Every structure is written in structure tokens, then in C-alpha cells.
Amino acid sequence: MPLLELDNFVSGYGDAVVIDGMNLAINEHEGLSVLGRNGVGKTTLMLSIMGHARHVGGSLRWNGDDLGHVPAYRRARLGLGWVPQERDIFPSLTVEENLLVAGRSGRFDLEAIYRLFPRLRQRRSNMGGKLSGGEQQMLAIGRTLMTNPKLLLLDEPFEGLAPVIVEELEETLQRLRREEGFATIIVEQRAEDALRLSDRAIVLDRGRVVLEGSSQELLADFGRVQEWIAV
Ligand SMILES: Nc1ncnc2c1ncn2[C@@H]1O[C@H](COP(=O)(O)OP(=O)(O)OP(=O)(O)O)[C@@H](O)[C@H]1O
């Protein structure tokens, strides 16, 4: 049974439909990239999975259970770990406090996060608002890992970061997948980076899947992806 399954799923905001009949299944340990131009609905898909957009039709299942009427805060408790594009770090809490407020018992505790991101250990007493963009992103990921999720949803984790930091983060995300077996969904403008981090990808246009395939396949035939994502 898939970990997460969308069946003819429709969602949006108010009267506006953004995700328009999506079929998608993600298995445990699987990595999926969600690609597409600005405004095609990538973030809305993540927000819908987390319960922050209006569910209009179709179904959304988690481990086979219908999530349709489950409020957002309970979805996080069920093992859906969301790392928002805005990162949402508490600026007046320290790095360590930012991590501890999210903590729930499980494999990932403070020590595990500091092993994964040694830079956060060095910065443990710094205020969240005083971190560089890369450190903020590490903290955002670390904080979500503290909830011990089964599925990690990352919205443009590399946005605005220097290439050397992107490389460091990519390595860490690879390790997480390989060693910890996380299922991940990654929304990214940098399509090639995302494809290298995933098993499979979908390309969206106007709230629908217009292209899908294994990441290897799509990397080998990247021109087809670019037809849909080039601006
Ligand atoms: N809170 C909202 N209320 C109403 N419409 C919204 C809201 N957020 C997004 N939209 C609209 O939904 C559509 C899809 O936006 P979404 O942010 O999901 O796209 P995206 O593919 O993630 O783009 P980006 O790469 O710019 O983040 C857009 O037309 C956008 O204007």
C-alpha cells in the first residue's frame, strides 16, 4: 500500500481550483520531485497534502486512511513533515530552542540533528534571526526532522543559496534518504538538482501532471522536461 495516495484530487483557494484532478502515489522510502514553472501549483500541492488548502474533490490517503477531514496539526503528528519555502524560523529563539520546540520522541533528537548538521551545533546559541540563508535552511530541515516524520516535504530548499551550500545540503539530503530511508517530495526550480535527489518526478502545468518518469529517464532526456519548465 502506498504511503501517500492522491486519487483524482482537486484543491484550491476559495472558488479557485488550482490542483485539477491529480493522481499520485508515493511509497515508503521513495523520493519524488515535483517540477514546473512558477504558478503551476507545486506549492499548492504541498499545502493541500498538509491540509492548508481547500480540498474540493477526490481523495487523499495516508497509509490507506482518508485524510480529507484531518486538520493540518494532526497531519503533522501522523508523520507528514513539511519544510516550508519561507523556512519560518523563530527569529528570537536560539537554534537549539527552535529545534526543541518541534521535538517529538523518536530516532531524531538534538544529537542526531547536530551530527547531521555540524554547523547547527556550532551555532546552537545563536538567535534564529541571525543565521545565514543556508543555516536557516538547515535549521528548517532539522526542526522538521525533530518531529520524526515518515515523509519529508521540501519546498524549494535551495532557493537563494550559494552553490557550495546547495552542494552541502544535497549531500545531506542524499544521506538522509540512503541511511534513514525517508520518503521525500521535493519541489524545486533547479530541476536537475531535484532529479539527482529523487527516484521519480512529475512535471506540472496548470495543476495537472503533464510529464512523469523515473529521474534517470528524465535526466537523460532533459530537453523534454525543459519544454515544460523553461520560462
Ligand atoms: N493563498 C492563495 N490564495 C489564492 N490563490 C493562490 C494562493 N496561493 C497561490 N495561489 C494561486 O495558485 C496558483 C498556483 O500557485 P503555487 O504557489 O501553488 O504555484 P507554484 O508552482 O508553487 O509556483 P512558485 O514556483 O511561484 O512557488 C497561482 O495562480 C497562484 O496565484
TrEMBL record:
Entry keyword annotation includes Kinase: no
Annotated GO MF terms: ATP binding; ATP hydrolysis activity; branched-chain amino acid transmembrane transporter activity
Biological process according to GO: L-amino acid transport
UniProt keyword terms in alphabetical order: Amino-acid transport, ATP-binding, Nucleotide-binding, Transport
InterPro entries: AAA+_ATPase, ABC_transporter-like_ATP-bd, ABC_transporter-like_CS, BCAA_Transport_ATP-bd_LivF, P-loop_NTPase
Keyword Repeat among UniProt keywords: no
Pfam families in the record: ABC_tran
Stretches assigned to the ABC transporter domain: 4-231
Lineage top rank: taxon: Bacteria
Cited PANTHER family: ABC TRANSPORTER ATP-BINDING PROTEIN, HIGH-AFFINITY BRANCHED-CHAIN AMINO ACID TRANSPORT ATP-BINDING PROTEIN LIVF
Similarity comment: Belongs to the ABC transporter superfamily.
Name by which UniProt lists this protein: Branched-chain amino acid transport system ATP-binding protein
Species of origin: Aquamicrobium lusatiense
